[in-house]
Amino acid sequence: MKSVDSMKLAISNIAFGEDQQAALNCVYQNGLDGIVVAPPTIWPHLPEITDLSGQDRKDCIEKMGQDAEDYSKRLGDLGLKVFGFQSLTYRAKGMSLFGSENERNRLAEHLESQAILAGKIGADSMSFGSPGLRNPSELSGEQAMDLASELLGRVATVAYDNGTQIAFEPLSGYGNKFVENLNDAMELANRVDNPGFGIHPDTAAMYGAKDGPEGLSLTVSGYDVRGIDISAPGLARLSLAPEIPQGDYITAIKKAKYDGWVSIEMGGPLDSHVIGQEIEYIKEQCGL
């Protein structure tokens, strides 16, 4: 049975083991609506696109776009949708949100390529975490916001043109030094001011930043939020972090009439039986 509430439930495929088909069957059998994809799990050589230019780059993205459409169709046959992308900069090199002009341009081009692929696969959103690439170092808060909003606005335009968005994830911990809580994320969204930009909250990060359910409710009510991660610190199994009030966060967005996606995010590989157990755990905790 699919989710009966207006919001939709997904799971990230970073939890999946080698037998992807078994994991997808488990997801479908447990009544989920879709998955979040780490692009390198479909395109292992994705980071290398940024080293191409001109027609070679266009041809490569076009071929990957065909693969995206095939993947989307296979999921559709199971009644599933690719809701979003994550792990956007996995294995990517020479990129930074606040580095040199070349590093920033490489990051923008890398994200723009994925925006095109997200459009091909039908993904609503691309969540940008990447704490290692967003350390402002000696920049002031104002300077960091200006630089970030400039680059992300550029990517957001391409995302919007392809029917998706680049969604910034507030992160507490993981060595992150930029946009650590929901208030920071809302300030960044105001700066970018682009329909192709959104905010991607995460329950473990909110808990670490002391962002309560009320703050999440305000965020989904006032800003473009298409997806929310349900997670535990270190991407552990959700049942191992009972201190995180997952149910309170979900209750808050239900009251706010949130009709987007919530996505279970755990590191893997996990076998299908464990994935099924964790899905049932979070459904019980959150009344889904």
The whole-number mean of residue pLDDT values reads: 93
The ordered H/E elements are EHEHEHEHEHEHHEHEH
User: What structural class do the secondary elements suggest?
Assistant: alpha/beta
Describe the sheet with the most strands: 8 strands, parallel
Number of helices: 9
Instruction: Tell me the span between the first and last alpha carbons.
Output: 11 Å
Task: Describe what is shown at a glance.
This protein is of the alpha/beta class and 288 residues long. The protein has 9 helices and 8 strands.
Ordered list of secondary-structure elements with their pairings:
Blueprint: E1 8-12, H1 20-29, E2 34-37, H2 54-76, E3 81-85, H3 101-121, E4 125-128, H4 141-161, E5 166-168, H5 182-192, E6 197-199, H6 203-209, H7 213-222, E7 227-230, H8 246-255, E8 261-264, H9 272-286
Parallel strand pairs: 1-2, 1-8, 2-3, 3-4, 4-5, 5-6, 7-8
Helix pairs in contact: 1-9, 2-3, 3-4, 4-5, 7-8
Description of the structure:
The chain is α/β, with parallel strands linked by helices. 44% of the residues lie in helices and 11% in strands. It has an eight-stranded parallel β-sheet. Helix 1 (20-29) links the parallel strand 1 and strand 2. Helix 1 runs parallel beside helix 9, helix 2 runs parallel beside helix 3 (101-121) and helix 7 (213-222) runs parallel beside helix 8. The protein starts with 7 loop residues before the first strand and ends with a helix. Mean pLDDT is 93; it is low at 1-5.
